[in-house]
Structures are given as C-alpha cells and as structure tokens.
C-alpha cells in the first residue's frame, strides 16, 4: 500500500496468505515453503504437428485451436467443457496460434515436412489434468484447424522439450520469490509472442503498459490460485513501474464479426522505481505466471501469449 511517507511498503498484514480460506484476509508468509500439492497445477503443453500437403491458413487460428481443444477435452471430461463454456471472466486455459508460423497478408502457409507448434495451458487442477490426459498421455492422431487435419507427432509439458512448455504449481511460483533470502531484481523483461491488448476505460489499448500488464496478471492469479495477492499490484504498476525499453509492433486480429482488434507483439522491459521486497517479489512472480495465464484479453483464443525473458 501507499504509506504517508510516499513509499510502497509490504501490505500489513502481508498480502499473501498460505493457504487461502474463505473467511480470512491475507496473512503473513510462513517461515518455510509448504510441500507442493499436485492439485494446484499449472501446465503449458506444446504439441508438434505436421501437414502432408501445403496448406494456407488464416493468419490467426487461435479460435480454431480453442475449438479443437474443447472437442478433445469433451472426450475426456464433458462436464468440464460445459463449465468452461458457462464460466464468466477469463477462461482457465489459453490456446495459441501456430507458434512458429510465418504469416503475411495472405495468411499462414504450412509446408510438408516442417514441424509446427501449438500451445495450450491450464490454470486449474481439473483443466490441467484433463489437458495432460488428452494431449500428452493419450495424444490424438491429428488436430483439425479449419477443416485441415494436422498430424500430431509429439506433445510435451517439459521445459527441456520446448522453450514454451512447462509445469508448476502456484505454491512453487510463490515460494521461489516470496520466501526470505537473497535480493530480488528490480527489473523484468516480458515477451509478447502474439497480439496483446487490454480493455481500459471502455476502450481497447494495444500497448502493454505496466499497470495493464500486472493488473491483468494479478487479477488472473487471484481468480485461479489458492493463494491471495494484493490487488493493489495494479496501482503499484501505475505508480511505481516504468516501461524502460520496448520493441513492439502492432498486429491486427480478426474477430468473429469481421472487425479487427489491434494488439502489440514484441518485448518490453519494466523497472521498479521503488517498493520493498513484497512488491518486487510479486512483480517477478507474476512475470513467471504469465507463461501459463497469458496477458490481457482473448487469451483463450490466441491473444496475449507471453513469458518472462532472462535479462542480460
């Protein structure tokens, strides 16, 4: 919170609670990390696909990928798919466009013999476990995008297998940053690999400004995590984080109604101008979380694919 002396201080009591209950406000950090629980699972699964013939897809296929993933999940857990459809707010999963597709104004051309990558993430135990079962344990023979079947040649949630893959839980992400010991960097660099946009005061904002990025991340964390973070992280982003470097391009994403939504693609570096350990740790933790949660609007259908990059 902002104190009378004008310095961002660790919320009192601390703004992380371990674990959350429905009646308590966030309480102090524990002296040691709890044992990880597999039920609080985050996964990022990268599926490798190939085509047997040259095909031309639209530039953005995130919506088609989302439909294909729901179809696959329906075979594993129909009730889960119904809950995803009926839920309000951010979805508990994200789906990418083709990660390494080369696009131009005509679309994305896929060539035979070239591996292409699709990514899906899960933010809750039920969704993550269903995705692992549907894609990794029992991979499909093909994933169909807009009536084009793409042959599946592999799938992994192991970061060693692909730079966008990974698995974690909310406690482990929090423990790496929040528990005492060592200094915490004041700077973090983010990659926005697909068009990233936000809603701001009823308008669309295609720039990843600090309060929009970290406000989006903390809201998604608090929606799906059993550990509560201070929602004041959005205001900390507005008042105490500076966008110090960026390399961004604007990219259009066609909507269902034919309209275009503009998003930013590229990298951005954020630096804290102040704040104590809690706020710096939260910044770093949410940057790690972005790999799984995505950032901004329409993350279930291809937008907002993001991850933290190591600063040189």
UniProtKB/TrEMBL annotation:
It comes from Caldilineaceae bacterium SB0661_bin_32. The gene is cas6. CDD domains: Cas6_III-like. Residues 190-305 form the CRISPR-associated protein Cas6 C-terminal domain. One of its GO terms (biological process) is defense response to virus. One of its GO terms (molecular function) is hydrolase activity, acting on ester bonds. The keyword Nuclease applies. This is CRISPR-associated endoribonuclease Cas6. Pfam families: CRISPR_Cas6. The lineage of its organism: Bacteria, Bacillati, Chloroflexota, Caldilineae, Caldilineales. InterPro entries: CRISPR-assoc_Cas6_C, CRISPR-assoc_prot_Cas6, CRISPR-assoc_prot_Cas6_N_sf. It comes from the Bacteria. Keywords: Antiviral defense, Endonuclease, Hydrolase, Nuclease.
